[in-house]
């Protein structure tokens, strides 16, 4: 015969009574009312949010054992918390977590009844210090959705792969889906959009967005508090796990290790993993090989800087949303001038709007030019000859002085030639000026240096690798 909630709870209580002091039992367990037993999930009603948190913090293991004893390894616990301030004080309020296929997982998901405005908060089911306040429902930002994400050649693959994933999370070959691209090109926006779309299509799925830094901090805390198991269990509950800026895990071996286990568990159970990174997997340094190879299991899709038409379309969609009108020529000018990232494009638009409202000036092409020219100058720092010399010398472990000297030592000559080559490509200085900065050479020497470097790059793979690496360094720190 099937047991009732009351019978199961009585069984639990007799086990609990043997394991806690009489005062604790009276304080924390007597007030609990068993309300429901369904699908091997027992729901108990507790008087307050605080009460629930206290139970989770102090009696989680005990509750787990008691439930396991009464309901078997599949048994689960849900809390129902009496709403604070509600006149119908007996009406309880719970949210169910969709059934998981894992065994022996105690899964007490509850609503956060303290905050009546947040209607769908699912609390962290395991008490992990530092994690407790997280809204495990999603962490998704509603405005970063697909409707607001303008499509263009620059993002077509990533966008449509993301869309496919949101129709069938975990069920496509795009698992993991790794979105990569430079700063401000829309990775975070798209990652949120996918999460939001999944929640729209599958409200019961547990979706979590988190950036890799926060993930790392939580893990460090978990280690400190001796609760790494809870940490792992928590993440293994997800149906969709979105980790933003996963390259930030570079060099963090322990965090990579724990992420590796979470990744495997989720992947094996058909759960969707979405990652973003500023580089494609092959270029991420400081990341364990086994993780990198897993990143490549699914699909890596890149986001590029939008082409001019898409930039203008993005600007139009932003002002349309805010109910603002701007002359086309102004939008075109903005789109034409800002080529670094979508974030800067937005920044330029905002400063233009701010200036015009502050000075009560109409936004004309002239005003746009004035503001944007200043803006562009501010954001695109110039690369100087000195800077290039410094990067090159650091790389070859030479002092900057020798490059500027007249010495003809072989290794110095080559470093000097490379510095000249980069100075030619990255600055607007004349060959003569560059020569003057590099050991008082004339313009013909600089020209010869550029040709030599070009030739060597074509014929010598190792040399080319040096130059490419230097190229990245120069760009990175510029
Ligand atoms: P990333 O994470 O790649 O650094 P973000 O996702 O934070 O970049 O994007 C920077 C800004 O640009 C955000 O405000 C985002 O909404 C906007 N953005 C990027 N791409 C698009 C796009 N295709 N359509 C509309 N807005 C975009
Ligand atoms: Mg981002």
Distinctive features:
GMP Synthetase, Chain A, domain 3, binds adenosine-5'-diphosphate, elongated, Rossmann fold, 4-stranded mixed β-sheet, 478 residues, Helicase, Ruva Protein, domain 3, alpha/beta, 9 strands, 5-stranded parallel β-sheet
Overall description:
This protein is of the alpha/beta class. The chain has helices spanning 5-17, 22-29, 49-71, 156-167, 187-201, 212-224, 228-236, 253-268, 289-295, 308-321, 328-337, 342-358, 365-379, 385-396, 400-404, 410-426, 431-437, 443-459, 461-477, and strands spanning 33-38, 41-46, 76-82, 92-93, 177-180, 207-211, 240-244, 272-277, 299-302. It has a 5-stranded parallel β-sheet, with helices on both faces. Strand 7, helix 8 (253-268) and strand 8 form a beta-alpha-beta unit. Helix 6 (212-224) packs antiparallel against helix 7 (228-236), helix 10 (308-321) packs across helix 12 and helix 12 crosses helix 13. The longest helix is centred in the first third of the chain and has 23 residues, at 49-71. It is elongated and about 95 Å long. The protein binds adenosine-5'-diphosphate and magnesium ion. Adenosine-5'-diphosphate binds at residues 144, 148-150, 155, 181, 183-189, 314, 342-343, 346.
